[in-house]
Amino acid sequence: TSGSSAVNGYNEVSVIFMLVALSPDFSWSKEVQAKLCNVFQLSKFRPLQRAAINLSMSGKDLFLVMPTGRGKSLCYQLPALCSKGFTLVIAPLVSLMEDQLMYLKSINVPAVTVNASSTKEDSKQVLAGMTDKNSPFKLLYVTPEKIAKSKLLMSKLEKAYNMGLLACIAVDEVHCCSQWGHDFRPDYKLLGILKRQFPKVPLVGLTATATSNVLKDCQKILCVQEPITLTAPFNRPNLYYEIRFKHNEDCTHQIAELIRERYKNQSGIVYVFSQKDAEVVATDLQKRNILAQPYHASMEPSDKSLVHQRWSSKKIQVVVATVAFGMGIDKADVRFVIHHTISKSIENYYQESGRAGRDDGSADCIVFFGFADIFRISTMVVMENTGQQKLKNMVAYCQNVDRCRRAMMAIHFDEVWNDDECNQMCDVCRHGNDYITMDITKHARDVVAIVEMASSMDEKLTPLKVCDAWMGKGPAKYRKTIKVTSLSRVEVESIIIHLLLHGYFSEDFSFTPYTTHFYLKLGRKAALLKNGNHSITMKMRRGMSHATVRVHKFSRRFHISCASAPGFFNDSSKF
Ligand code: ADP
Ligand code: MG
Ligand code: ZN
User: Any coiled-coil ranges, and where (predicted)?
Assistant: First the structure.
């Protein structure tokens, strides 16, 4: 029976199924492979994707536990394209669905939704399509509320089921079923009806939550008899995570030093923000005698593959790349991934940094955390539904000085975590209590007053202007009213970031036809500062005011104990 005899999340039955599932010889295998390349434009599967697809196409019920960003969606989207009828997808948020629908539209996969904001006309068309033998869409996204509340939808599903047109049911963020999960949604409790009404349709539950009691709970709530659980290991014990403050002038210089000294003759990636940055930083590194080349989306395909090839065969040492460099990278011995600019989310960072050390040898992941970069990215992701929140999570990760970086990632991905597992493989664990707790209430009042004053003069200030003004470098007309600070630039920046992350400031975008500007305005908590008793503290890295980053000497060789998960399911280059 499932669950009870599980070792590392797999019981014996699962393992046998898995071995079968990994086989490339199913009647659908050719079609699946072809659609992977032609529709999704991906060169190959990530770990567990093929197994998940084969299992659900064999009619098995499945829970798929994978860190965010690893590609769970493909595991139901691809089978949907290869099946008769359509796949029903339950997702918790309309914004998540819209992101997915936009993506699917861009690759010409017919997908639709019915939700509270659909027009009558749209809903009617979707409902009609459900029982249309020609399947006008392959994926139907709905919220759990819709399943719970719309009798019409349920009766259409019933009809589609009887016609053999309901291919699969995917429950995204399946941990929402359980009260033990971090994100309980009462309407998920009612989804048991699906498996009771449509017992022959395979159900796939997807989540980044690994705890077995949550999964057991979900299994019960969804009325799934004997699901197979596939779990992708999340922690990368051989990667060392480090954040450094970025000082624009010498960031490239520091990167060059690192590459020359610490990573001599070793391959790596430097991720940058824009195509222009890729060109500029690559040229700067070349000037410092480092074999580096740029890689970004506007390059000719032949040039791109040439760079990739040269790097793979160690003819060049470093690729200076935008996020366009990712697909199809399977180099195992990447010893460093340096972020010249922070990633736009922790999910992205996990993915990008995760390209290091695939051979299980030790590798470093270093982020240069720069103030101005935050706002460059913020305006770039302005149209994405969850873009600002994701960016703030990334910024909080960088700003953090007292929690193990792995612990933060684990919490973000809702993984169980035990602090000893880091083995000092992050800067926080290695350098311990290297921070001070500062009362910044007075500073907060001063800087909030600057933004308030500007707005009373009908002016908007960018974060950089706020820094300048606060440090006494702003226009003369401000100087009369401003209390100039004696804090260092880094401290000023850190405090502004802290206030933004905690809602004392918020973002005020202004759109022109050419660009988007980021201004600071007062946040919902700014008014609290009027209260004399309100106080704000923040943790700051010690000695931060002494400008540059401290160079810590440490031995780079560690004995890494092997991950406890069975080898063949590890995130290794074998897949
Ligand atoms: P999750 O739901 O697990 O958080 P997503 O399904 O949203 O992750 O996928 C995250 C990203 O990974 C997407 O950009 C997707 O295109 C990409 N991706 C998925 N599968 C693969 C693959 N086999 N190779 C390369 N990229 C992939
Ligand atoms: Mg997802
Ligand atoms: Zn740590």
Answer: none
The whole-angstrom distance between residue 380's C-alpha and the CA centroid of its chain comes to 16
Whose CA is closest to atom 15 on ligand 1? Answer: 71
Q: Counting atoms of ligand 1 from 1, which one is nearest the CA of 67?
A: 3
Whether the model clears a pTM of 0.80, i.e. scores above it, the answer is no
Out of 32, 42, 349, mutate this one to test ligand 1's pocket (max ligand atoms within 8 Å of CB): namely: 42
Could you write out the DSSP letters of every residue in 179-215? TTSTT--GGGGGGHHHHHH-TTS-EEEEES---HHHH
Minimum-distance ligand to the CA of 67? 1
Cα 367 to ligand 3 centre (Å): 15
Closest CA to 204 of 233, 229, 178: 229
Tokens of 168: 């699969």
How far apart (Å, rounded) are the C-alpha atoms in residues 488 and 122? 57
What is the average pLDDT score of the chain?
A: 88
**CB within 5 A of ion ligand 2: which residues?**
72
Q: What is the pLDDT of residues 220-275, one digit of tens each?
A: 999 999 999 998 878 899 999 999 999 877 899 999 999 999 999 999 999 999 99
* Helical ranges in 384-471 per DSSP H: 387-399, 405-412, 427-431, 441-456, 463-470
Can you read off the two tokens belonging to residue 374?
């935050």
Ligand 1 nearest-atom number relative to CA 40: 16
Task: Take residue 117 and report the two structure tokens written for it.
Answer: 């904001």
Ligand 1 atom closest to Cα of 44? 23
Q: Which atom of ligand 1 is nearest to the CA of 172?
A: 2
The SS3 assignment for 297 reads: coil
Q: Which amino acid is at 103?
A: Y
Q: Which of 349, 348, 317, 350 is nearest to 334 (CA)?
A: 317
Beta carbon of 386 within 6 Å of any ligand 1 atom: no
